[in-house]
Amino acid sequence: MAAIELRGVTKRYGASGLRKSNGVTALRDVDLRVEDGEIFGFLGPNGAGKSTTIDVLLDYLAPTAGSVRVLGHDVPEESVRVRERTGVLPDGHGPIGERTGREHVEFAIEAKGADDDPDELLGRVGMLGPEEYPVAQYSKGMTQRLLLAMALAGEPDLLILDEPTTGLDPNGAREMREIIREENARGATVFFSSHILEQVEAVCDRVAILDRGEIVTVDSIENLRERAGGTATVTLEVANHDETAVERVRAVDGVVSVRVESPANTVSAGRVAAAAGKRAGGENEQRPSSSQRTDSAEPTDGAGRGDGAERSDGDAGKPARVVVTCEARAKAAAIATIHDCVPVTDVAIEETPLEDLFAAFTEGVA
Amino acid sequence: MNRLVGTPRRLLLYAREDALDARREHQVHTLWGLFGLVGLVITYTASQGTGAGVRSEPVGMVASLFAPLVLLVPLVALGFVATTIVEKRRSGALTVLLGLPFARRTVVLGTLLGRSAVIASAPLIALLAALPVALATDVAVDPGRLIAAAVALSLLATTFVAIAVAISTLARSTMLATVTAFGAYVVFVFDGWSQLPAVIRYVIHGFERPETTATWVEVVAATSPITAFANMLAGISPSLTDASIASAAENPELWEEPAVAGAILVGWIVASTGIAAWRFRATDI
């Protein structure tokens, strides 16, 4: 079942008075389907229409044309039924009067007819302590955390989060991602927009890219990379160097180059392992940037320094690092080929930078 | 079934929390302090007027308080409530509220219920504060008039709160809501409403005063909340009519009958709330 389904949605903001011809079309004929149980990212440049789309989903705005269904309900007709089962962290929010953080959460629990423990929700978002202060005194990040606690009330089937990490420090952003994963593991569908591409990549199954009010593409990040024609660098730590494996992986369609590095150059092994763990859904999300990887993975004999050379630096039978540069679509085949030949102790993948990917699909600036 | 149970429960929740918001924002303290002071001062002044032969005709507690309260209740209702919803929209609180399962009509009705309770409590505080002063200074207290005044003032408060809520849902800015509320106070309390049809007829007749009085002008004049309030008092407690700021018709036509006047006040509440809910439903947040 589709958790969210937009069909032909257009939203036009009309100007009033004599300037009616100066209306702005924020969404144009948008079709979007988010499946039940997905973590779905919503990307787009400033002014692309992301918040407008979310506002339409929540019945803050009425679409000019098209149909909007959420959790099987028609939004304009049954928005209360939708919000009974949806947790919302909206953009452009503000505190309700002079209520304290605790009063906000208790109000959300009671409004949803839930029996959650306010302390548990506040503790989950790290807001136990300041919860007795009026929210008007909170920082932006504290308000974001509190609103997430309100969104979690009643174990919603769907979470709609508009720029959820805005104002959060790195720890807060990481905790937000952990909660998103936990909620998804519980069975909730998560739909969130973000400007921070790494946040989206870290948790999303699929993403939609919106540009100038139109959906440009909907796919997984991996597929988007393939479609964008980007290259990837796959680094495999193998238990013993095997030249046959190297030859076989060179023959894989899409592989550009292969080099074998000495095991002595394993200073970044921890980072590499961390990066591999991240893609496997592990807890550690520390991922090296392109520059970090370039610095730490420098081969001992100059092989693979951008000159296209394919030289081996490994001794047969000893641990080695195999670095494969390939088209994005060939990653899995390259890994499988090496894996079939020798024991692989670790894998790290460095993809086309998300910024490049984003730019490939939009004409704006993220 | 859940929907049927959930809607009234959420309406009461919204109304309760909205009334508590007025307390959290110290509106309740301000209102009760102001009205309590009014009750004390006016009743004490009345007691001085009836003593030592200064005034030959004694004035009861309710009679002395009623006119000031009729002037103050619409003022505080419009002043305190007209910015309630528009301010929530401006601050982003409405975005949070409507992220929870509240229908927009619940926001309108909940605000009406919550704020009516707050505003209607103010004249009751004035009457309660005046009571011990009146008893201590031998100012007459008629229990029947006291109860009638409390009921009538509560209805007046609810009527003007409904008008204020409508202003708050229709206005796009706090400034516009405030100006509109001030205009509404002038039109309704200072009888601008009944002058409006006369002005229209004056213009239609080529800027000359018409020799006859049209029935529709009288009907329109009778629909003013303050005029309807005065006409309704004639049925509840005729003696309060003399103490009010508007006088009731001596030989009432059908539209000036107390029952019809009461219906007109209820009509203001229903119409204001209905228009507010209808327009608010179609408004982009």
Automatic annotation (TrEMBL), chain A:
Composition bias type Basic and acidic residues, residue spans: 307-318
Single GO molecular function: ATP hydrolysis activity
Superkingdom per UniProt: Archaea
Ranges of residues in domain ABC transporter: 4-237
Keywords: ATP-binding, Nucleotide-binding, Transport
Pfam families in the record: ABC_tran
Skewed-composition ranges (Low complexity): 269-278
Nucleotide-binding listed as a keyword: yes
SUPFAM superfamilies listed in its UniProt record: P-loop containing nucleoside triphosphate hydrolases
Disordered: annotated segments: 267-319
InterPro entries xrefs: AAA+_ATPase, ABC_transporter-like_ATP-bd, P-loop_NTPase
UniProt family annotation: Belongs to the ABC transporter superfamily.
PANTHER family linked to this entry: ABC TRANSPORTER, ATP-BINDING PROTEIN
Protein known as: ABC transporter
Organism: Halovivax asiaticus JCM 14624
UniProtKB/TrEMBL annotation, chain B:
KW Membrane (keyword) present: yes
Lineage of producing organism: Archaea, Methanobacteriati, Methanobacteriota, Stenosarchaea group, Halobacteria
Entry's transmembrane regions: 30-47, 59-86, 107-134, 146-167, 174-193, 259-280
UniProt protein name: ABC transporter
GO cellular component, one term: plasma membrane
Keywords for this protein: Membrane, Transmembrane, Transmembrane helix
Keyword 4Fe-4S belongs to the record: no
Organism: Halovivax asiaticus JCM 14624
Signal peptide start and end residues: none
One GO MF term: ABC-type transporter activity
